[in-house]
Design goal:
Number of helices: 7
Structural class: alpha+beta
Subcellular location: Cell membrane
InterPro entries: TMEM206 (IPR029366)
Catalytic activity: chloride(in) = chloride(out)
Order of helices and strands: HHHHEEEEEEEHHEEEEEH
Main location: membrane
Region (Disordered): 1-42
Helix content: 40-55%
């Protein structure tokens, strides 16, 4: 009995070997199918996705290009901010070097009475009166001595430019009340002259009271003649002088005073019966307006504005630098992720 069982198993084994040797290709195809199934299990559908690799690459490229454009924009903004800092500092230094002239006007009802210094030479003062509201009454006995109702003083001093010639000056107190349009009307008479043209010099200074209270009046007048300009009025005319006061503040804090004048001249019609060879001089002094003009140099550069502007610019610089740094990090991260996906796809293909 045992012998028939051994012979039967041997017969089955030989039949199997013959079947395998007759169909070897079918076995290989089965093994390849098993391998493909195993590979499909290694790379899940979530890694490959439903999009193609070329579409994924184009999206990543667009993101990188957009990041580079943003980076260049913020670099450009940083360059503009640096230029603004330089320009702001340059403008501030320029304004410090070149201050701007500022003009202000102060209204007054009464001026400090100015001093009027006349240098009549051989001429003689005939009359001096104060009138109001631009009204001058008709002349009575022109060429004859009249009333002198003005405050006057006479002084002799040496010429400040030559220090040799003695000069004679007649100092008259000028008008004060600008609201009532106060004026001073003076009449001079020159008997004879050997000159071709006849004129009287005069000089304006800021305060008649300062002259009166000065202990050294000669020195005071020499200083005034050195500091102020002198003018002339001619004989045979009525010269109307309208004054305005200009004060200038210097950098050291001192203040200088200057007079501006508007002059109108009217011919005098001599109605005296007998022809004469003498000359009559008429002059009127009046304030032009109730405004004292003050001129001073001011620096328009404000350091606090510049500091605030610089703080804003530097803050923008720091923000732009921080954004640029984050943009670079984001680009590097995207690049690494793209390389990682590329390696995974390459490994899958291999």
């Amino acid at each position: 009995m045992p012998k028939p069982e051994v012979s039967a198993s041997y017969q089955e084994l030989s039949e199997d070997v013959e079947r395998v040797s007759e169909n070897p290709t079918e076995e290989r195809e089965g093994e390849m199918e098993v391998n493909e199934d195993s590979n499909s299990v290694i790379l899940p559908d979530g890694e490959l996705g439903t999009t193609t690799p070329s579409l994924r690459f184009s999206k990543t490229c667009l993101k990188n290009v957009f990041s580079v454009i943003l980076l260049f924009i913020y670099l450009l903004l940083m360059a503009v901010a640096v230029f603004l800092v330089y320009q702001t500092i340059s403008d501030f230094r320029e304004k410090l070097k070149h201050p701007v002239m500022s003009v202000t006007y102060k209204e007054v009802s009464l001026y400090d009475a100015p001093g009027i210094a006349f240098y009549p030479g051989k001429a003689r003062l005939l009359s001096c009166k104060h009138h109001y509201y631009d009204h001058i009454p008709p002349l009575i006995n022109p060429g004859q001595p009249g009333d002198i109702e003005c405050t006057t003083q006479r002084i002799n001093y040496t010429d400040p430019f030559t220090n040799q010639t003695m000069k004679y000056a007649l100092i008259v107190q000028g008008p004060r009340d600008v609201k009532k349009r106060e004026l001073v009307f003076l009449q001079f008479h020159l008997n004879e002259t050997d000159q071709d043209f006849s004129a009287i010099d005069y000089l304006l200074f800021s305060s008649f009271q300062e002259f009166v209270s000065s202990p050294e009046k000669a020195k005071f007048m020499k200083d005034c003649e050195s500091s102020y300009s002198s003018w002339k009025f001619s004989g045979g005319f009525r010269t109307w002088v309208k004054m305005s006061l200009v004060k200038t503040k210097e950098e050291d804090g001192s203040e200088t005073v200057e007079f501006k004048q508007e002059t109108s001249v009217v011919n005098y019609i001599d109605q005296r019966t007998k022809p004469r060879s003498d000359q009559l001089f008429f002059v009127v002094f009046e304030w032009k307006d109730p405004f004292i003009q003050t001129v001073q140099d001011i620096i328009t550069a404000n350091p606090w504005n510049m500091i605030a502007l610089l703080c804003g610019i530097f803050l923008a610089l720091f923000k732009a630098a921080d954004f640029a740094k984050l943009s670079v990090k984001w680009m590097i991260k995207i690049r690494r992720r793209h390389l990682k996906r590329t390696r995974q796809v390459t490994n899958h293909i291999s």
